[in-house]
Amino acid sequence: MAAEHEALILDLVEWVARKSRPYAEVMEAWRTSCPRLPVWEDAVDRGLVERRAQGTGEAMVSVTAAGLDCLARNGRAVRKAG
């Protein structure tokens, strides 16, 4: 991971790992126009989170197994929202 925003990528993955979220919510919270801070893009490119269409037509974002492994390697415990 790029050192300059590694912590932010971990924050995003941890946030999504707590519960799957609508794509629109993720974009509202994490999209940036700064080319030096592509947190969402890097998390997707590394396979840490994924976007999937639901039967309702709404896209949802969820953490992947690679994302959970990344969190564990970096000492981030995930508690699912209930």
Describe the model:
- The chain is an alpha+beta fold.
- Helices cover 45% and strands 15% of the residues.
- The chain contains four helices and three strands, in the order αβααββα.
- Helix 1 (6-18) packs across helix 3 and helix 1 crosses helix 4.
Give the biggest sheet.
Answer: 3 strands, antiparallel
The N- to C-terminal Cα distance equals: 30 Å
Order of the strands making up the biggest sheet = 1-3-2
Second-tier CATH architecture: Orthogonal Bundle
Name the helicity range. 40-55%
Provide the structure class: alpha+beta
Rg value = 12 Å
Find the CATH superfamily: Winged helix-like DNA-binding domain superfamily/Winged helix DNA-binding domain
What's the total count of β strands? 3
Which consecutive residue ranges, at least 5 long each, have pLDDT under 50?
Answer: none
The tally of domains stands at 1
Order of helices and strands: HEHHEEH
Mean pLDDT score: 87
What is the compact description of this entry?
The protein is α+β, with helices and mostly antiparallel strands and 82 residues long. 45% of the residues lie in helices and 15% in strands.
Task: Write the SSE topology.
Blueprint: H1 6-18, E1 21-22, H2 23-30, H3 39-45, E2 49-53, E3 59-63, H4 65-73
Antiparallel strand pairs: 1-3, 2-3
Give structural attributes.
single chain; 82 residues; alpha+beta; Arc Repressor Mutant, subunit A; 3-stranded antiparallel beta sheet; 4 helices; 3 strands; 45% helix; globular
